[in-house]
Amino acid sequence: GFSWKLNDHPKLPKGKIIAMIVLDGWGEAKPNEYNCIHVAETPTMDSFKKGAPEKWRLVKAHGKAVGLPTDDDMGNSEVGHNALGAGRIYAQGAKLVDLALESGKIYEDEGFNYIKECFETGTLHLIGLLSDGGVHSRLDQLQLLLKGASERGAKRIRVHALTDGRDVLDGSSVGFMETLENDLAKLREKGIDAQVASGGGRMYVTMDRYENDWEVVKRGWDAQVLGEAPHKFRNGVEAVKKLREAPQSNDQYLPPFVIVDENGKPVGPIVDGDAVVTFNFRADRMVMLAKALEYEDFDKFDRVRVPKIRYAGMLQYDGELKLPSHYLVSPPLIERTSGEYLVHNGVRTFACSETVKFGHVTFFWNGNRSGYFNQEMEEYVEIPSDSGITFNVQPKMKALEIAEKARDAILSRKFHQVRVNLPNGDMVGHTGDIQATVVACKAADEAVKMIIDAIEQVGGIYVVTADHGNAEDMVKRNKKGEPLLDKNGNIQILTSHTLEPVPIAIGGAGLEPGVRFRQDLPGGGLANVAATVMNLHGFEAPNDYEPTLIEVVD
Ligand code: 3PG
Ligand code: CO
After folding, report:
1. Which of 44, 50, 105, 224 has the smallest set of CB atoms within 10 Å of its CB?
2. Which DSSP category does 235 fall into?
3. Distance between CA atoms of 379 and 418, rounded to whole angstroms?
4. E strands, 167-263, where?
């Protein structure tokens, strides 16, 4: 039968203190002026590199290596941390939705049939991120869903579109909105009353995460449900074009707007009897809205009016909370993660990050599962993020505070694994501010230094890696790799993640002398890290885990 008990590693001892450090958005790319990690002073990360190939190497962090549909898909934190924590590669949300749409199974399952009940007399509302970024959602999936729902009886459809500019180029919202408006116009020709109803920039409207700032969700609620927003337009394209004209405006932070009819009346508030689908497959930035839509008891903001609707998520966003209770596609079932195994085998764990990445080293790490496996064995610490600012203003973020907490946890000797996420490279990289990203990278490097110093003091081991690339390339490039210019001759800033591999380094006074990276896994990826860390804790990994990256030579 199944047992949580892990076999002892034949050569490696138990009981070592291991720092598991994840630098968010820290890939490896050619050194040049748009590589902020290269430009920044990063002596600690640089020193690891000198240990190659035995103590430093690169691992894949994008595409199929992390369960994404194709190798053109950049990595992201959800799939990266899932792979790191679970030690296996799962077909991820993006892929599962593709398959369900392709086979038509999405229309046969419970979730769709549940919302379909409203099609005769109610409106179908689709709320989500409008882009082809493939991190939270994809435009082509929305298009297929619009087509599929209208062919299956939806007579009145309203889209509540959040503009991106974070997983895709800033300014691309106009094109995506044009595509959407064209599709909706074609549906109207077929007699379906289909329109954009509201919108706003993802970072300002709806898509907050880990309860950093409920105001963001409230702004969305007001526009989507109540039909109230400071800006009113007649269609989505006009809205996005006009709002982008304001100085300093960008897709990520567009203010909320509603679309109104010729009498100035909002065309698509959500009312009793309607169906609602949130079409993002990724959980972290949709689960707050899911709570607002689904929970009867809710005190995060005044919803004013709570319509009686049938609501389904594209996926179920939280398996523990069973939220939402209806969904179109089943999420990947990520079980037996390394965190759960280790807890069952006596490994005491401490995990910490600041709010904006806290769920990454807990929820995502543990296979999209909230809470502790065993509270006696684990401690999770969240440091409040600055809210209401863009992180280029405070590029050091809470790196120092996270490192201090990790240091203290290490020096307390109460834990065997001290796991952190350092958000700087990613969160500041997403702002597209190159100078600030350089400051961010330096801050992350300093945090690493503080943590590994503590590891040296206790005779522990460090494992330093990243979840995906971002700060190492801040410019959009052509196929040849040359920077692309816009109409005005300025470089096109790349706010998104990249396809680059990420470094992994091992070391520390506690690392047995014979431990080194194997040379027979050149294609290794993030999913190989879990077995590696289990070995360093003194255990063999379960058989179905991706192989360990290390070997022990005598
Ligand atoms: C975000 O949600 O901020 C971005 O779309 C993806 O960033 P992350 O995968 O690093 O969280
Ligand atoms: Co990111």
Report:
1. 50
2. S
3. 10
4. 193-201, 231-233, 257-259
323 CA distance to ligand 1 centroid (A)?
A: 21
Interatomic CA distance for residues 232 and 238, integer angstroms: 10
Ligand 1 atom nearest residue 25's Cα: 10
Q: Is the pLDDT of residue 472 over 90?
A: yes
Mutate to test the pocket of ligand 1, among 92, 430, 472, 526 (most ligand atoms within 8 A of CB): 430
Testing ligand 1's pocket by substitution, the residue of 23, 62, 68, 77 carrying the most ligand atoms inside 8 A of its CB is 77
How do beta strands 56-59 and 502-507 pair?
antiparallel
Q: Is 77 a catalytic residue?
A: yes
Give 466's contacts (C-beta < 8 A, 6+ positions apart).
22, 23, 24, 25, 26, 27, 61, 80, 425, 502, 503
Q: Which pLDDT score, from 0 to 100, does residue 387 have?
A: 87
Q: How confident is the model at residue 498 (pLDDT cuts 50, 70, 90)?
A: very high
- Its ipTM equals 0.99
* Candidates 3, 47, 77, 387; catalytic one: 77
pLDDT in tens, 35-89: 999 999 999 999 999 999 999 999 999 999 999 999 999 999 999 999 999 999 9
Of the candidates 186, 190, 187, 69, the residue with the CA atom closest to the CA atom of residue 132: 69
Rounded distance between C-alpha atoms, residue 302 and residue 286, angstroms: 18
Q: What is the pLDDT of residues 405-418, one digit of tens each?
A: 999 999 999 999 99
Average pLDDT over residues 109-129: 98
pLDDT of 1 > 90? The answer is no
**Ligand 1 centroid to residue 15 C-alpha, Å:** 34
Under 8 Å between Cβ of 251 and 204: no
Tell me, in angstroms, the distance from the centre of ligand 1 to residue 78's CA: 8
Which amino acid residue places its CA nearest to atom 11 of ligand 1? 77
- CB atoms inside a 10 Å sphere around CB 245: 7
Nearest CA owner, ligand 1 atom 2: 285
